[in-house]
Design a protein that fits this description.
This protein is of the alpha+beta class. The chain contains 15 helices and eight strands. The protein has two domains: about 210 residues, no CATH class; about 180 residues, Nucleotide cyclase, GGDEF domain (Alpha-Beta Plaits), CATH 3.30.70.1230. About 60% of the residues lie in helices and about 20% in strands.
Length: about 425
């Protein structure tokens, strides 16, 4: 029995929700979504209350008054229809203009027989939060007009000879005007609370998603600076260790696999590397094809930058050795330590990047290295020789730099 009643209630509630959501689509701003919902809600409530007064109006027998009260619901239906057709501003202006006209028209029609000025309370409340933020001036103008019309209705209704003398001033419909105004005010308040708070919650969720996305692109401290300051972000970092890793023969492997499997394989490998970077609190800079770049000591200085990079490099070899795939993956790794310039470039699809000889030589250490081995420069060796075991490789000819001493990093001591 309870389930049957619940099903009966579900259809009207679903219909009501559909009406309130008419005109809303994914491309609308949150301000405009709030505006559409309030217009639809206000129109539906005022339409319903007008129908409630039909029996009283019919009993008075004034043809023009009957026509007027039968036209009112059509106005509010038209406003909802305008929202549905995406004429949002027209719908807003129609509801604002006619609601003010209707409330004020009750003064000459009924005079002091009914407290028609009470209608300005729910109308004013609805108007206060009706307009989007880019129409704030219009909101203040409409609110001012509402206050003026309320004052005129309140102070002059008793001085005006009404156009309609109610046959039964004590009729229940007349007595319920204050109650109806109160109910509309409460309803509008509830609707506003639900949708305004819901809109604010959506805005906060959207902001959190944007911040999470930004943190996936940029280091936390850099993201914070970028939000606070739009000037160029460029830092001189004197003590940094940079590592490049390249999957050897990946181009050959990719030619034998479907595109989806190539991307999935690379994603699995780099996800493992990302986890290692997170484990050692290192900063992943970027991936370039099948190459992976990571650095220690940026954007925040740390004394163990070289040690953390060395630990990650050794773990990367272990990851690749234990990787399950159809083709045996192999990797070359190059490491160098020194000064870099770090910063953010671009205004669209921006990236946090590193520049300088330290970066270039680290890249050469990788490209001129050997598969399955970690090649480090003399600078990095001098920093790590007390904690890690190295074997001297000898001199490597680096384009633009000449011969550079290099070492193979083997393991931790």
């Amino acid at each position: 029995m309870v389930q049957h009643s619940s099903k009966k209630l579900h259809k009207p509630v679903a219909l009501l929700k559909r009406i309130l959501e008419l005109g809303i689509h994914d491309q609308l701003t949150l301000d405009r979504v709030k505006n559409v919902r309030i217009i639809n809600s206000l129109s539906l409530v005022l339409l319903t209350l007008t129908v409630f007064y039909w029996p009283q109006i019919l009993s008075e027998g004034h043809i023009w008054l009957i026509i007027y009260y039968f036209l009112i619901p059509l106005i509010y239906i038209a406003a909802i229809y305008l929202n549905f057709k995406h004429y949002y501003r027209n719908a807003t202006l129609l509801v604002v203009a006619f609601s003010l006209f209707y409330a004020f028209s009750l003064v000459p029609i009924f005079g002091a027989q009914i407290p028609s000025y009470l209608w300005f309370f729910p109308i004013g409340l609805g108007f206060a939060l009706l307009f989007p933020s880019d129409e704030e001036i219009t909101m203040y103008l409409v609110s001012g007009i509402t206050i003026v019309l309320f004052a005129i209705s309140y102070f002059f209704s008793s001085m005006i000879e009404p156009m309609v003398i109610l046959s039964d001033p004590g009729d229940i419909a007349t007595k319920t005007v204050p109650l109806a105004a109160l109910l509309v005010t409460i309803f509008v308040s509830i609707v506003l609370r639900k949708y305004v708070l819901g809109t604010e919650s959506s805005l906060m969720n959207e902001q959190e998603r944007s911040e999470r996305l930004l943190l996936n692109i940029l280091p936390g401290p850099i993201a914070g600076r970028l939000k606070d300051n739009h000037n160029t972000i460029a830092d001189a970092c004197p003590d940094v260790t940079v590592m490049f890793a390249d999957i050897s023969g990946f181009t050959r492997i990719s030619e034998t696999l479907p595109a989806s499997e190539v991307v999935e394989l690379l994603n699995r490998v780099f996800t493992k590397f990302d986890m290692l970077a997170e484990k050692y609190h290192l900063e992943k800079i970027k991936t370039i094809g099948d190459a992976y770049m990571v650095a220690g000591g940026v954007p925040e200085k740390r004394d163990d930058h070289a040690e953390a990079i060395a630990n990650m490099a050794l773990d990367m070899l272990t990851v690749i050795e234990g990787f399950e795939n159809k083709e045996r993956l192999e990797i070359r790794i190059g490491i160098n330590s020194g000064a870099v310039v770090a910063g953010v470039i671009g205004i669209k699809k921006f990236i946090y990047d590193l520049w300088g000889d330290t970066v270039n030589i680290a890249s050469r250490m990788e490209s001129q290295g050997e598969v399955g081995r970690i090649q480090a420069t003399e600078t990095t060796y001098q920093i790590l020789k007390d904690k890690f075991i190295f074997v001297r490789r000898g001199s490597v000819n680096i384009k633009g730099k000449g011969h550079v001493e290099s070492w193979w990093l083997l393991k931790r001591k």
